[in-house]
Amino acid sequence: MDMAAHKGHSRANAGLFIGIAIAAGAAVAFALINGGAPLSAGFYLPDWINWVRITPSMSGLLALGLVGLLVGIVGTVVSLMTPARKTPVKRTPAKTVVPTPAPAVAAAPVAVPEAAETPAPVAQLVADNTRKASLRFEAPVAAAAPPAPVSAAPEPEAPTQPLPSAEIIPFRPEPTPETAEVVPPEPVAEATEPATIAEPAVDETPAISGDPIAAALLHAGPEARTEPEAAPDINSVIHSAMRFIDRPDPTSVTSVEEVHAVRTQEVDSDAPPRAAQTESLSERMHEAPVGSTAEYKALSEALADNNTFEDATPLLDSVVLETTPAEAVEAREPAPDSEPAVESDVASLNATDPQAEIARALTAALTHWPDATRDIAEGELHVRLSQLYHDNALQSREAFARIAQGDLSGGAAVMAQEAQAFADARLPEKAAELWRIYGALHMGRDDTAAMHAYEQVSALDTADGNIHMYLIHRYRMANETDKMLPVIGRALGVVTDRDTRLDLLTQYAELTQAGGHLGHTAQALEELSRIRGELSAEDPDNLQKRSAHAIALAKQAQVRELLGEGPKAAPLYQHAHRVFAELSARVPDHAGLKAMAENARRDAERLSA
């Protein structure tokens, strides 16, 4: 207690000084940033003296902030090192209670019939019939329990009847008349031993349908779950799908063993499959949509491996990819003349050699390319077709089958529809992958469609720097500067190479200045000046790098002046003047360096006056 009080007192004082230090630091930062302090000049005193003379208010705020920062730091250290006066804490002694001896009991034995003994309270599972599937676990109070009826003495080892199981049985048994089950009471232990309650064993037998507890447990509502569900795996998905497909009639099948017997009879018999299986599965999926694309793939693979469906009916139209409001999606029907061939190819993909199928599709697709670009497109197209083949989604398989038949337009249309569905479901990575395949399918034979696909990739996957640089190169060749600016912005977010960033920053500054976005221009020129300064510092004897640094500083100063930020522009002009003057001194016969140094000096003096 004393140590806690001491630490609290010290921390309170330290917190006050820390607050003073933070406020002073904020004042210093505000004065340096808003006042346009010549930070780039370092410890060059003439620049700082000029700044103090130009902005007396900000320089005074800087001085006050430095003093406050010093006071806060010193006060924090002193308050943490100085011990505080300890306050004694009074403790009240604990009162001891002397137990009162119990009154003596007559030694004469008293005969009490066993039937009149009060049984030990047994925990029971009570169902509240006013609200379905609302279960509570109650223990009866011994004082409020009514006396048990007089009956024969129970046997000591009499087994108790098991309570209904809390496990939800997948099939309802036949209804039986309600019967009242009497649970014999357990023998009461001696008075000297504490009473113990035996935990009833949980039986896995089906519950009686007439029992209200069983009815509440079998209620298909969210409140009927008494335990958290286990993490879903592929086996549970397969079992759930098979149960939805081959769900037996509850009036004829009452146990799991009979379900397996019915399935065995259907497999061994020559009867055609039930036509209502696919419809019931579709209805079930509309009732409880699949939560993600991975679960949908696992379900479709499980159904395909078990040969559940005779035809390859697409299931994606009835599946919601994410937990978003369900929207009606029109089912796309292929042309009547190509439907049998597509279904047969989709069904035979798993039974053939993958490399042979990919090679066959590549050969069929390359016949649509001109001779000049066929060899260039072959490598990229082979990679993308392999990626499409190994995608287990039904629409991806249909697109691959169409491409293998030579129907490139049909396959591209299927991929575009699937990519749009992924984009609407907020899955940009999957949509970008499909647009990459779409672009490879048109590159070299339809550049308009290929550029459209790669523009979609650039917008969906902003981390793909190669696509950004490719689009910038194509836009530069076509002189489409209006499309270049957003792509350069995405590329600057991922490109780290210094030379590449210099090129991108130069273009970005020119385009934003031409469009009137001077704020973005100033940011680009600020980073450009920093990189130019690093390059000139690495090679100080290189006059070209040093002059490029000075030019970047002068351009940044001009943009700051156009924005009305004179205090920020003046130090930049001064820095550019120093670099130009040094270069002019090293090359005295260069008239351009001398003129630029003189212009920078005049601009700095004009803004400082």
TrEMBL record:
Entry keyword set: Membrane, Transmembrane, Transmembrane helix
Biased composition (Low complexity): 146-155, 177-191
Membrane-spanning ranges: 12-37, 57-81
Superkingdom per UniProt: Bacteria
Region span, Disordered: 146-191, 263-292, 326-349
Protein name, entry field: Tetratricopeptide repeat protein
Keyword set includes Transmembrane helix: yes
